[in-house]
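TASK: fixed-backbone design
INPUT:
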Protein backbone atom coordinates (compact mmCIF):
# COMPACT_ATOMS: atom_id res chain seq x y z
CA UNK A 1 0.00 0.00 0.00
CA UNK A 2 2.87 2.35 0.78
CA UNK A 3 4.33 1.68 -2.67
CA UNK A 4 1.04 2.73 -4.30
CA UNK A 5 0.98 5.99 -2.35
CA UNK A 6 4.61 6.66 -3.27
CA UNK A 7 4.00 6.13 -7.00
CA UNK A 8 0.87 8.32 -6.88
CA UNK A 9 2.80 11.13 -5.14
CA UNK A 10 5.55 10.98 -7.75
CA UNK A 11 3.00 11.25 -10.56
CA UNK A 12 1.48 14.36 -8.94
CA UNK A 13 4.91 16.04 -8.62
CA UNK A 14 5.75 15.20 -12.25
CA UNK A 15 2.47 16.70 -13.50
CA UNK A 16 2.98 19.89 -11.46
CA UNK A 17 6.53 20.26 -12.78
CA UNK A 18 5.39 19.91 -16.40
CA UNK A 19 2.64 22.47 -15.89
CA UNK A 20 5.10 24.95 -14.38
CA UNK A 21 7.48 24.68 -17.38
CA UNK A 22 4.75 25.25 -19.98
CA UNK A 23 4.52 28.78 -21.52
CA UNK A 24 1.56 30.63 -22.94
CA UNK A 25 2.07 31.45 -26.66
CA UNK A 26 0.19 34.73 -26.18
CA UNK A 27 2.67 36.20 -23.69
CA UNK A 28 6.42 36.86 -24.09
CA UNK A 29 8.98 35.41 -21.76
CA UNK A 30 9.53 37.57 -18.70
CA UNK A 31 13.19 38.12 -19.59
CA UNK A 32 12.19 39.94 -22.82
CA UNK A 33 9.90 42.47 -21.13
CA UNK A 34 11.20 46.04 -21.47
CA UNK A 35 13.92 45.10 -23.96
CA UNK A 36 15.49 48.15 -25.63
CA UNK A 37 16.86 48.50 -29.12
CA UNK A 38 19.73 50.74 -30.14
CA UNK A 39 19.00 53.92 -32.12
CA UNK A 40 21.75 56.10 -33.63
CA UNK A 41 21.39 59.64 -34.97
CA UNK A 42 23.92 61.50 -37.10
CA UNK A 43 22.89 65.18 -37.04
CA UNK A 44 23.91 67.76 -39.62
CA UNK A 45 22.68 70.97 -41.28
CA UNK A 46 20.58 70.89 -44.45
CA UNK A 47 22.42 72.25 -47.52
CA UNK A 48 19.92 75.04 -48.24
CA UNK A 49 20.30 76.39 -44.72
CA UNK A 50 24.00 77.13 -45.29
CA UNK A 51 23.50 79.46 -48.23
CA UNK A 52 22.31 82.33 -46.02
CA UNK A 53 25.86 82.59 -44.73
CA UNK A 54 27.20 83.14 -48.23
CA UNK A 55 27.20 86.12 -50.55
CA UNK A 56 24.31 86.26 -53.02
CA UNK A 57 26.94 85.89 -55.77
CA UNK A 58 28.44 82.73 -54.29
CA UNK A 59 27.87 79.30 -55.76
CA UNK A 60 24.91 77.46 -54.27
CA UNK A 61 25.89 74.92 -51.60
CA UNK A 62 24.44 71.47 -52.31
CA UNK A 63 25.97 69.18 -49.66
CA UNK A 64 24.84 68.84 -46.05
CA UNK A 65 27.18 70.17 -43.36
CA UNK A 66 28.61 68.76 -40.17
CA UNK A 67 26.74 70.23 -37.18
CA UNK A 68 29.89 71.71 -35.63
CA UNK A 69 30.41 74.05 -38.60
CA UNK A 70 27.27 76.06 -37.77
CA UNK A 71 26.26 75.27 -34.17
CA UNK A 72 27.78 74.95 -30.71
CA UNK A 73 24.70 73.75 -28.78
CA UNK A 74 22.33 70.82 -29.37
CA UNK A 75 19.24 69.77 -27.41
CA UNK A 76 17.54 66.39 -27.95
CA UNK A 77 14.09 65.48 -26.59
CA UNK A 78 12.07 62.30 -27.09
CA UNK A 79 8.37 61.90 -26.26
CA UNK A 80 6.31 58.69 -26.19
CA UNK A 81 2.87 58.16 -27.76
CA UNK A 82 1.27 59.77 -24.67
CA UNK A 83 3.38 62.93 -25.25
CA UNK A 84 5.41 62.25 -22.11
CA UNK A 85 9.09 63.14 -22.14
CA UNK A 86 11.03 59.86 -21.92
CA UNK A 87 14.59 61.04 -22.52
CA UNK A 88 16.61 64.19 -23.19
CA UNK A 89 20.21 65.11 -23.84
CA UNK A 90 22.25 68.31 -24.15
CA UNK A 91 25.47 68.47 -26.16
CA UNK A 92 27.91 71.33 -26.70
CA UNK A 93 30.73 71.76 -29.17
CA UNK A 94 33.13 70.42 -26.54
CA UNK A 95 31.19 67.14 -26.28
CA UNK A 96 33.06 64.24 -27.94
CA UNK A 97 31.33 63.29 -31.23
CA UNK A 98 29.18 66.43 -31.15
CA UNK A 99 26.10 65.80 -33.30
CA UNK A 100 26.10 62.02 -32.84
CA UNK A 101 23.60 60.46 -30.42
CA UNK A 102 23.16 56.82 -29.40
CA UNK A 103 20.04 55.89 -27.43
CA UNK A 104 17.90 52.86 -26.62
CA UNK A 105 14.11 52.41 -26.74
CA UNK A 106 11.53 49.72 -26.25
CA UNK A 107 9.57 48.87 -29.39
CA UNK A 108 7.00 51.57 -30.16
CA UNK A 109 6.46 54.98 -31.76
CA UNK A 110 8.15 58.13 -30.46
CA UNK A 111 8.42 61.81 -31.36
CA UNK A 112 11.94 63.23 -31.57
CA UNK A 113 12.70 66.96 -31.33
CA UNK A 114 16.15 68.34 -32.13
CA UNK A 115 17.18 72.00 -31.84
CA UNK A 116 20.64 73.48 -32.34
CA UNK A 117 21.92 77.03 -31.92
CA UNK A 118 25.05 78.88 -33.01
CA UNK A 119 25.50 80.33 -29.51
CA UNK A 120 24.37 78.97 -26.16
CA UNK A 121 20.69 79.88 -25.65
CA UNK A 122 19.53 82.23 -22.92
CA UNK A 123 16.74 79.85 -21.86
CA UNK A 124 15.70 76.37 -22.89
CA UNK A 125 13.66 73.37 -21.81
CA UNK A 126 11.58 70.66 -23.51
CA UNK A 127 8.90 73.21 -24.44
CA UNK A 128 10.70 76.31 -25.75
CA UNK A 129 14.04 77.92 -26.46
CA UNK A 130 15.23 81.54 -26.33
CA UNK A 131 18.39 82.31 -28.29
CA UNK A 132 18.61 86.04 -28.99
CA UNK A 133 20.84 86.94 -31.91
CA UNK A 134 21.75 83.32 -32.59
CA UNK A 135 21.08 81.03 -35.51
CA UNK A 136 18.46 78.37 -34.64
CA UNK A 137 18.14 75.01 -36.44
CA UNK A 138 15.27 72.60 -35.79
CA UNK A 139 13.77 69.25 -36.74
CA UNK A 140 10.86 67.17 -35.43
CA UNK A 141 9.97 63.68 -36.65
CA UNK A 142 8.33 60.38 -35.69
CA UNK A 143 10.52 57.42 -34.85
CA UNK A 144 9.24 53.84 -35.03
CA UNK A 145 11.37 51.37 -33.09
CA UNK A 146 11.17 47.65 -33.88
CA UNK A 147 13.32 44.67 -32.94
CA UNK A 148 16.40 45.98 -34.72
CA UNK A 149 19.10 48.64 -34.58
CA UNK A 150 18.21 51.93 -36.29
CA UNK A 151 20.64 54.50 -37.72
CA UNK A 152 19.31 57.76 -39.17
CA UNK A 153 20.93 60.82 -40.70
CA UNK A 154 18.99 63.92 -39.60
CA UNK A 155 19.56 67.33 -41.21
CA UNK A 156 18.28 70.33 -39.29
CA UNK A 157 16.69 73.37 -40.92
CA UNK A 158 16.97 77.04 -40.01
CA UNK A 159 13.72 78.34 -38.46
CA UNK A 160 14.71 81.97 -37.87
CA UNK A 161 15.84 84.76 -40.19
CA UNK A 162 18.63 87.30 -40.25
CA UNK A 163 18.20 91.05 -39.91
CA UNK A 164 20.89 93.29 -41.38
CA UNK A 165 20.94 97.07 -40.83
CA UNK A 166 23.34 98.91 -43.12
CA UNK A 167 24.06 102.61 -42.50
CA UNK A 168 25.12 103.99 -45.85
CA UNK A 169 26.28 107.45 -44.79
CA UNK A 170 29.54 108.16 -42.97
CA UNK A 171 29.55 107.91 -39.19
CA UNK A 172 29.63 111.45 -37.78
CA UNK A 173 32.78 112.40 -35.83
CA UNK A 174 30.81 113.17 -32.67
CA UNK A 175 28.97 109.83 -32.54
CA UNK A 176 29.19 108.01 -29.20
CA UNK A 177 27.05 104.93 -29.80
CA UNK A 178 24.36 103.36 -31.99
CA UNK A 179 21.50 101.37 -30.52
CA UNK A 180 19.43 98.85 -32.47
CA UNK A 181 16.03 97.96 -30.98
CA UNK A 182 13.41 95.41 -32.04
CA UNK A 183 9.91 95.97 -30.79
CA UNK A 184 8.84 92.34 -30.57
CA UNK A 185 10.68 89.06 -30.80
CA UNK A 186 9.58 85.65 -29.51
CA UNK A 187 10.86 82.38 -28.14
CA UNK A 188 10.61 79.24 -30.29
CA UNK A 189 8.05 76.55 -29.44
CA UNK A 190 9.60 73.11 -29.70
CA UNK A 191 6.36 71.22 -30.29
CA UNK A 192 6.02 72.75 -33.77
CA UNK A 193 9.08 74.91 -34.43
CA UNK A 194 7.14 78.19 -34.63
CA UNK A 195 7.45 81.47 -32.66
CA UNK A 196 5.48 81.75 -29.41
CA UNK A 197 3.39 84.86 -30.18
CA UNK A 198 1.72 84.78 -26.76
CA UNK A 199 4.70 86.47 -25.12
CA UNK A 200 6.58 89.20 -27.04
CA UNK A 201 10.06 90.21 -25.95
CA UNK A 202 11.56 93.63 -26.75
CA UNK A 203 15.21 93.37 -27.78
CA UNK A 204 17.99 95.89 -27.96
CA UNK A 205 21.74 96.08 -28.45
CA UNK A 206 24.09 99.05 -28.23
CA UNK A 207 27.32 99.38 -30.20
CA UNK A 208 29.86 101.88 -28.89
CA UNK A 209 31.60 103.80 -31.66
CA UNK A 210 35.38 104.18 -31.36
CA UNK A 211 37.09 107.18 -33.02
CA UNK A 212 38.67 104.78 -35.52
CA UNK A 213 35.18 104.27 -37.01
CA UNK A 214 34.51 107.97 -37.66
CA UNK A 215 33.87 108.53 -41.37
CA UNK A 216 33.07 104.84 -41.97
CA UNK A 217 30.34 104.18 -44.55
CA UNK A 218 28.17 101.05 -44.88
CA UNK A 219 28.50 100.33 -41.17
CA UNK A 220 26.55 97.08 -40.74
CA UNK A 221 24.80 95.41 -37.84
CA UNK A 222 23.54 91.81 -38.08
CA UNK A 223 21.38 89.73 -35.77
CA UNK A 224 19.06 86.72 -35.95
CA UNK A 225 15.34 87.07 -35.27
CA UNK A 226 12.87 84.36 -34.21
CA UNK A 227 9.79 86.43 -35.05
CA UNK A 228 9.02 85.22 -38.57
CA UNK A 229 5.23 85.62 -38.34
CA UNK A 230 4.44 89.25 -37.49
CA UNK A 231 5.70 92.66 -38.68
CA UNK A 232 8.10 94.34 -36.31
CA UNK A 233 9.35 97.85 -35.67
CA UNK A 234 13.10 98.40 -35.88
CA UNK A 235 14.58 101.49 -34.28
CA UNK A 236 18.08 102.88 -34.93
CA UNK A 237 19.11 105.42 -32.28
CA UNK A 238 22.29 107.49 -32.45
CA UNK A 239 23.88 109.08 -29.40
CA UNK A 240 25.88 112.15 -30.46
CA UNK A 241 27.93 114.70 -28.46
CA UNK A 242 26.44 117.68 -30.32
CA UNK A 243 22.99 116.57 -31.49
CA UNK A 244 22.11 114.42 -28.50
CA UNK A 245 19.93 111.39 -29.18
CA UNK A 246 18.15 110.96 -32.51
CA UNK A 247 17.46 108.23 -35.04
CA UNK A 248 15.09 106.44 -37.37
CA UNK A 249 12.17 104.06 -36.92
CA UNK A 250 11.43 101.54 -39.68
CA UNK A 251 7.90 100.13 -39.40
CA UNK A 252 6.34 96.90 -40.69
CA UNK A 253 9.59 94.98 -41.16
CA UNK A 254 9.05 91.30 -41.89
CA UNK A 255 11.60 88.61 -41.14
CA UNK A 256 11.23 85.27 -42.96
CA UNK A 257 12.75 81.87 -42.10
CA UNK A 258 16.12 81.23 -43.71
CA UNK A 259 16.04 84.68 -45.36
CA UNK A 260 18.11 87.82 -44.83
CA UNK A 261 16.15 91.08 -44.45
CA UNK A 262 18.30 94.12 -45.22
CA UNK A 263 17.51 97.65 -44.03
CA UNK A 264 19.79 100.17 -45.71
CA UNK A 265 19.79 103.94 -45.59
CA UNK A 266 21.19 107.13 -44.07
CA UNK A 267 20.77 108.08 -40.43
CA UNK A 268 23.50 110.49 -39.29
CA UNK A 269 23.05 114.23 -38.90
CA UNK A 270 25.83 116.78 -39.21
CA UNK A 271 27.70 117.57 -42.40
CA UNK A 272 26.66 114.31 -44.04
CA UNK A 273 22.88 114.86 -43.83
CA UNK A 274 20.37 112.01 -43.70
CA UNK A 275 17.83 110.21 -45.88
CA UNK A 276 15.40 107.30 -45.64
CA UNK A 277 15.81 103.54 -45.50
CA UNK A 278 15.24 100.86 -48.11
CA UNK A 279 14.14 97.34 -47.13
CA UNK A 280 15.25 94.37 -49.24
CA UNK A 281 14.98 90.61 -48.84
CA UNK A 282 17.80 88.29 -49.84
CA UNK A 283 16.38 84.79 -50.21
CA UNK A 284 19.48 82.70 -49.72
CA UNK A 285 21.55 82.95 -52.90
CA UNK A 286 19.08 84.95 -55.01
CA UNK A 287 19.39 88.61 -55.96
CA UNK A 288 17.99 91.30 -53.63
CA UNK A 289 14.52 92.63 -54.38
CA UNK A 290 13.40 96.00 -53.07
CA UNK A 291 10.18 95.67 -51.08
CA UNK A 292 9.63 98.95 -49.22
CA UNK A 293 11.29 102.34 -49.48
CA UNK A 294 11.36 105.02 -46.76
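OUTPUT:
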Amino acid sequence: MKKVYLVFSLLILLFASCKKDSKSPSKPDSDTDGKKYEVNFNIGIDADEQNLQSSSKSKKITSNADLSTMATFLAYYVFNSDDKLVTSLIQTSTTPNFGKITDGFAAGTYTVVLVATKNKPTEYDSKHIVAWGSDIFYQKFELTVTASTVTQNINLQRVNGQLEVKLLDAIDDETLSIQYSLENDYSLLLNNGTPDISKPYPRGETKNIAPALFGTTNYTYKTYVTNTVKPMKVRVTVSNKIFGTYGKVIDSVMIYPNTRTVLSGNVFKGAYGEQGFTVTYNELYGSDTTVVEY
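COMMENT: Residues 165 and 221 are 5 Å apart (CA to CA).
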